[in-house]
Specification:
By secondary structure, the protein is an alpha+beta fold. The chain has 3 helices and 4 strands.
Length: 99
């Protein structure tokens, strides 16, 4: 495991995140251009705002497992779920420093 990969989430946490993800609508769509710097930036902003984000793969559906891993690595997030043509990613918000 490299230094950039987050530590695996415990099973109960993954189950709770999957439960929450069922109610989410995709906020990011990966189209024919694939994973671009602009898409990664948008994904990063969405993770900062929401922590749990659903991404729809509209193209490259035959490569969805690899794209899911690439999205998680590029955004330094956890791959929570790959269901159908949607990827669910989670990155915990940074805790504010207490003075």
């Amino acid at each position: 495991m490299s230094d950039t990969e987050p530590t695996p989430l415990p099973g109960p946490v993954v189950r709770q995140l999957r439960s929450r993800a069922q109610k989410l609508d995709p906020v990011i769509k990966v189209g024919h251009a694939g994973i671009t710097p602009a898409l990664v930036k948008s994904l990063d902003e969405a993770l900062v705002l929401h922590e749990l984000v659903k991404v729809r793969l509209t193209d490259h559906k035959d490569q969805k497992k690899e794209l899911a891993r690439q999205l998680a690595a590029a955004s330094h997030s956890h791959l929570v779920w790959l269901i159908g043509h949607c990827v669910v990613l989670f990155r915990e918000r940074a805790k504010p420093a207490t003075p």
